[in-house]
């Protein structure tokens, strides 16, 4: 992408009401534009990151055997009356009437809708297990939308729903999601810690929130440092294998948000491993048995011919929240430092002397080579001052910066800077593409 033809409205200052660093940086880099409380336009740079996250989530859901579909944002209230949640949900639900005075709502979540899809088609245990997911905008009329996209009112969520015949099978499905989440967050450059979460009135122990540590997180969290040092299960994981050990390897260690915190259990961890910090909830997985299938009559025929309500679980990821969360976890004084997996472009190419025939040609050549190699490149061929170009490139935080100027050109070299480490090396033109190609 040539910067002069792109739309990248960066600014020096962030509005005073942006309270946390990710929100400030998202506004300054022109990633989002606020249109109302908790409602945002995703500008081109922000949208690229959002799509990267969405694709990682999709890959890892698919790898774990989940199947993508797309449900609508607008739902009929009648479905929610069946589950009893239409009245229970309260003011967070945006309620709308259509021209025929039918009650509609903008979905805050999709348990009812997916249960309706399921019961319309699946009648036999032979069609199980099944896990259906989508990535769709949600609306929750939060009391206090804040921190930019981290607590929006309209936000993008990945929500998956599992269907199984028995409770044991439902646990198998749960473990798949547990592992897939760790892999997905790791690909985004994040260490997400699964923490025991409240299951509310349904009870049981099958709910985990996935939390990333950040000073600006909304929840106080407590965990064993061992969890922060652990590698994810890995993309080679066999999802058809028994994943119990993989899950227990992590759940054996203490980890809880303040609602579930147990002082005594925490105190029992060796002192040098006690982590007391703040965290951002980026995902939440939940097994709720027959909570929806019973009232909504989503039943399947079991092997003995009996009709039984299907066992369900739901699995959310805050896709748009993650954009802010990743920035909270990865920035410095000069701006964002994108992890490679989610960077809006992989490389920023800076032409130091636009209009100089040699520089223009060398940059143009390199740009073509990078594009041909499938490396997403933002080419700064504007006539801004060099200092402004460097500052802007640092601010938007692409993993690699390539600088071409008249002096280097004489020697046949390009300056290659790694945004994260700050390391700069001078390389001959022929070696540049290989250097920045992801491993
Ligand atoms: P929170 O406790 O942060 O309000 P929640 O528990 O109500 O979230 P879930 O229903 O578990 O949220 O939704 C799944 C995921 O969607 C959450 O883990 C979070 O990452 C994301 N999410 C929830 N509410 C918002 C919001 N207002 N803005 C952005 N993302 C959100
Ligand atoms: Mg939650």
From TrEMBL:
The record's CDD domains line, in alphabetical order, gives: ProRS_anticodon_short, ProRS_core_prok
Cellular component per GO? cytosol
Keywords tagged on the record: Aminoacyl-tRNA synthetase, ATP-binding, Cytoplasm, Ligase, Nucleotide-binding, Protein biosynthesis
Single GO term (MF): ATP binding
- Reported EC number(s) for this entry are 6.1.1.15
Task: Tell me the ranges covered by the Aminoacyl-transfer RNA synthetases class-II family profile domain, including all copies.
Answer: 38-339
EC top class, in one word?
A: ligase
**What processes in GO biological process is this protein linked to?**
prolyl-tRNA aminoacylation
- Matching Pfam families, A to Z? HGTP_anticodon (PF03129), tRNA-synt_2b (PF00587)
What subcellular locations does the record give?
A: Cytoplasm
Q: Which reaction does it catalyse?
A: tRNA(Pro) + L-proline + ATP = L-prolyl-tRNA(Pro) + AMP + diphosphate
Q: Which NCBIfam families match?
A: PRK12325.1, proS_fam_II
Assembly with partners or alone: Homodimer.
Function, in words:
Catalyzes the attachment of proline to tRNA(Pro) in a two-step reaction: proline is first activated by ATP to form Pro-AMP and then transferred to the acceptor end of tRNA(Pro).
Which PANTHER family would you find in this protein's record?
MITOCHONDRIAL RIBOSOME PROTEIN L39/PROLYL-TRNA LIGASE FAMILY MEMBER, PROLINE--TRNA LIGASE
What the record says about family reads: Belongs to the class-II aminoacyl-tRNA synthetase family. ProS type 2 subfamily.
Protein name, please?
A: Proline--tRNA ligase
Q: Which organism is it from?
A: Hyphomonas adhaerens MHS-3
What gene is this protein a product of?
A: proS
């Amino acid at each position: 992408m040539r910067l002069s033809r792109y739309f990248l409205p960066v600014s020096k200052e962030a509005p005073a009401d942006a309270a946390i660093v990710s929100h400030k940086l998202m506004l300054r880099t022109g990633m989002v534009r606020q249109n109302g409380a908790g409602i945002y336009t995703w500008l081109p740079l922000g949208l690229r990151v959002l799509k990267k996250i969405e694709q990682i989530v999709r890959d890892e859901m698919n790898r774990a055997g989940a199947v993508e579909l797309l449900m609508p944002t607008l739902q009929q209230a009648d479905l929610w009356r069946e589950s009893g949640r239409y009245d229970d949900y309260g003011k967070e639900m945006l309620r709308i009437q259509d021209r025929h005075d039918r009650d509609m709502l903008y979905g805050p979540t999709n348990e009812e809708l997916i249960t309706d899809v399921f019961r319309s088609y699946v009648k036999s245990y032979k069609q199980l297990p099944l896990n259906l997911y989508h990535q769709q905008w949600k609306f929750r009329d939060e009391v206090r939308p804040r921190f930019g996209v981290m607590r929006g009112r309209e936000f993008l969520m990945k929500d998956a729903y599992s269907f199984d015949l028995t409770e044991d099978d439902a646990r198998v499905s749960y473990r798949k999601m547990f592992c897939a989440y760790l892999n997905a967050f790791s690909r985004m450059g994040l260490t997400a810690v699964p923490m025991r979460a409240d299951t509310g009135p349904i009870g049981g122990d099958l709910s985990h929130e996935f939390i990333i540590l950040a000073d600006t997180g909304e929840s106080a969290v407590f965990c064993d440092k061992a969890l922060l040092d652990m590698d994810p299960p890995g993309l080679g994981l066999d999802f058809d294998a028994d994943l119990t050990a993989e899950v227990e390897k992590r759940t054996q260690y203490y980890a809880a948000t303040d609602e579930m915190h147990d002082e005594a259990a925490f105190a029992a961890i060796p002192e040098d491993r006690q982590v007391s910090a703040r965290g951002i909830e980026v995902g939440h997985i939940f097994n709720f048995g027959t909570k929806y299938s019973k009232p909504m009559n989503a039943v399947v025929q079991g092997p003995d011919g009996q009709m039984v309500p299907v066992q369900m679980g739901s699995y959310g990821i805050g896709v748009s929240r993650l954009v802010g969360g990743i920035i909270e976890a990865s920035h410095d004084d000069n701006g964002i430092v994108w992890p490679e997996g989610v960077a809006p472009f992989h490389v920023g190419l800076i032409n130091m002397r636009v209009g100089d025939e040699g520089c223009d040609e060398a940059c143009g050549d390199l740009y073509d080579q990078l594009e041909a190699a499938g490396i997403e490149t933002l080419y700064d061929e504007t006539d801004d001052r060099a200092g402004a170009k460097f500052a802007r490139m640092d601010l938007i935080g692409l993993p690699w910066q390539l600088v071409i100027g008249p002096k280097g050109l004489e020697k046949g070299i390009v300056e290659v800077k790694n945004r994260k480490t700050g390391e700069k090396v001078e390389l001959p033109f022929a070696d540049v593409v290989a250097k920045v190609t992801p491993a």
